[in-house]
Amino acid sequence: xxxxxxxxxxxxxxxxxxxxxxxxxxxxxxxxxxxxxxxxxxxxxxxxxxxxxxxxxxxxxxxxxxxxxxxxxxxxxxxxxxxxxxxxxxxxxxxxxxxxxxxxxxxxxxxxxxxxxxxxxxxxxxxxxxxxxxxxxxxxxxxxxxxxxxxxxxxxxxxxxxxxxxxxxxxxxxxxxxxxxxxxxxxxxxxxxxxxxxxxxxxxxxxxxxxxxxxxxxxxxxxxxxxxxxxxxxxxxxxxxxxxxxxxxxxxxxxxxxxxxxxxxxxxxxxxxxxxxxxxxxxxxxxxxxxxxxxxxxxxxxxxxxxxxxxxxxxxxxxxxxxxxxxxxxxxxxxxxxxxxxxxxxxxxxxxxxxxxxxxxxxxxxxxxxxxxxxxxxxxxxxxxxxxxxxxxxxxxxxxxxxxxxxxxxxxxxxxxxxxxxxxxxxxxxxxxxxxxxxxxxxxxxxx
Length: 448
Prior knowledge:
By secondary structure, the protein is an alpha+beta fold. It is built from eight helices and 27 strands. Helices cover 15% and strands 31% of the residues. The model is unreliable at 1-26, 75-88 and 125-129 (pLDDT under 50).
């Protein structure tokens, strides 16, 4: 793996003052922000964005599988880079505009429930300043400071690679489709669209994207349960979001603290709740939920419960992911679902290859997917909660004349089931981190 820490040397000389990160642990952090659509402002057609998002979802699923494989196998083995297809990180999730520094520099960060590190590209050298929308400049902030090697975040943070040089905590993180390196630092971050909340001393990564691309974003903001995430650093007890339909490209509400309360907002159906699980093999980087079965219409599918369960070694299980567009199921479960869909959707299976989709139907001449009726796909969780997915939550139209299943397959051995963005659109979902509960309710997201 290539190292690029020499890029940080000019940055390391900017400031000599080092402070220990000060977090808002125990304080009430309540605010609302509006998430940008992954393709907001990008001149692509709906079919083009759908195809790109599907490709990015496959890359992300491969990355998650590789991460679990490394955690389980350790030095005994891992997936090769050939198993992790490239896709821009900007294709994989919604983004949030935040203020970084004093005075605040507005920068756009990709929101990811499957990552913990908050990081942004830093203007370490003068030539970077010609791109101010993307690069944050620590030289223009009075509140920036590097974190020393002995800081808690440096000691406890999980990275692909970590090193200390000149008492700076240097890191390298691999995302499967991208690689970022930098130095841990602390800074004041300002959040919120309707009212501003400033958080001093937030730990983050200041560095470079050394491989891959971000498609117009500056960096990433992690919302996972991991040590370095915004949720963990600020001890935020709960957060929620409600994703507007993918094809509409509208903003989506993201709510933190006391504002993340599904009972405060009008839902189309009752609120349902299940548990959030921990992974025994690794520091939990994802929000696992206990998926126990699936139905198509009123028919319960014969999906083996063992194919959905998390195993004692940490493989398997189901995550709710903000960065995937498509859903994924292990091959055993996927084949049962595929067969049932073919039987119940009365359309001919398309005889063309559609990249990144494993099942497509040929629409009647001139018809759109909106004219087709399909039975709901239901996700059953432990405790009785059931997420009902209607046509637009499990089918997509990647090109005219084709209706494709927005569910793919992952390997049975290390594969994890993923509930993606298509499944979550117009669904208000809440992560009660303190009580380890996951709640959801169908909602008109643009009305929140």
